[in-house]
């Protein structure tokens, strides 16, 4: 393999890891505050649809971005209402979000455009071009979110409070800080980041929305989150690793490697899932989630 | 709000799910309105398509069979306090179990081969659920995450096997060869024809009886057996279970094994009863609908039969509706499923309070 193809692979790994990264950080914010989010996939999907539809309607990729963020935050608020205000089961709510997103985008897309759920192809101003160093602005937003997340959660007062809510909400409540408020804030930030991930998929990486175009990326992001043990910089590493695997599996399609033969694409595709299961089983290190994640907070107890 | 709401039993088991389902349909109606169609016409077409003809009814019951199995699978795990969202993967592996069994033992007569195929489905489904169960019980890895990962692993595995290993050499489609004729589970119209009764042909097959038998078996297991008691104790309080001499780890693994085996029933109905070959994506998201079915049916077999019938009507009626009104595709059912999961599952407390407010005081006092 020569240098150019090596760089090509790294470049496409970066492109493929961006939606994973944004969604992974979304999960990080939410779960660090104690709200488990398996609805990353669904929020990315609604954002991808809303962004593509708005970018097409208003001839502007930026308006598309805001529509994507808005749709994703709206779904995040539904999840927040169910799991924070109503103290419902967060897993059940996440499953519902994923199903709603898959169904609604397909139905509305079909009703509006009549192209089997696709939006019309986006071109020119309707897409984020590769403006800076051969990448779109969204790539840098996602990358910038990593140090920001690490700084806010690690070094600022509100960040520490937010993490405390995910570990011991009763202590935070005793200190007179609103558990509900912090959790809603985290869920909304998660919505914004999922919106970024979804918008990137349909308005920057591709030119338009396809039904179910997230194709499990939300779950790979979830795997990356566990792999990174709920920390921001390792999340960047995990997402880039999974993006790299994806890039390699695309590259290796139909290529016979000397000594090994043809590597089945599926073997590489299975790796993120497999590695997560092995990590969770505690065979290589332990992945411990925030202590209060998944547990609704009841003030009176 | 802080006090747990005590509702009479009938209100808790019947009224609350009913109210949340009605609310879900109202929201779905709004979606139909939103895309510029008439919800009442849509409902009429839906009911006509699913119940209005013998053929439609047959298809409705065929889908109901699928949903009973996945609903029971979720319910059994749910009683043990586990959330098995791996029904898709378990059913996919069960399909592999069927294909390997019946295509490799095709020399056997039908009365041996068909039950062996069903056992193959149950065994493979159970095995695929046992691993996450074991990891939860012994290594503490969260069952939700591992079953999600196992869903994706299953879908990747089945693509690999069908494309590279199990596909017939001369065929372009990623599917196995047809199962041997004697292993096919007879269609209901064939069975009735043998007795001289004519019913309209449909995909409905004898697996429906197996599904109803599974309902009775699960009821006996959960509410009338020692193991079922242990499952329910572990589900409501693992610490109390240890105090009572029950090993939560053992019960968790057993519950997951039963759950996975039940999810395998989906493959039996779809593959042995209808498709007669293993193909990609035959689970079609039914594993997730199983969550809605179990939540709506309050994890009780009787409730699951009713919820499955409702979803059967939705699926069959939805197909007819999509044919009559192309704007409303079958994705509408996914939307309705999602809303039902949200309302009957995550927002349960909201609807319980709503019902408590609507009920007259004496009814509450008696509870």
Automatic annotation (TrEMBL), chain A:
The chain crosses the membrane at residues 6-28, 64-84, 91-112, 132-153, 184-203, 209-228, 235-257, 263-284. InterPro entries: ABC_transp_permease. It comes from the Bacteria. Coiled coil: none annotated. This is ABC transporter permease. PANTHER family: GUANOSINE ABC TRANSPORTER PERMEASE PROTEIN NUPQ, SUGAR ABC TRANSPORTER INTEGRAL MEMBRANE PROTEIN-RELATED. The lineage of its organism: Bacteria, Pseudomonadati, Pseudomonadota, Alphaproteobacteria, Hyphomicrobiales. GO terms for cellular component: plasma membrane. CDD domains: TM_PBP1_transp_TpRbsC_like (cd06580). It is found in: Cell membrane. It is a multi-pass membrane protein. GO terms for molecular function: transmembrane transporter activity. Keywords: Cell membrane, Membrane, Transmembrane, Transmembrane helix.
UniProtKB/TrEMBL annotation, chain B:
One of its GO terms (cellular component) is plasma membrane. Pfam families: BPD_transp_2. It is found in: Cell membrane. This is ABC transporter permease. CDD domains: TM_PBP1_transp_TpRbsC_like. It comes from the Bacteria. InterPro entries: ABC_transp_permease. Keywords: Cell membrane, Membrane, Transmembrane, Transmembrane helix. It comes from Microvirga brassicacearum. The chain crosses the membrane at residues 14-35, 56-78, 110-131, 143-163, 204-222, 252-271, 278-296, 302-323, 332-351. One of its GO terms (molecular function) is transmembrane transporter activity.
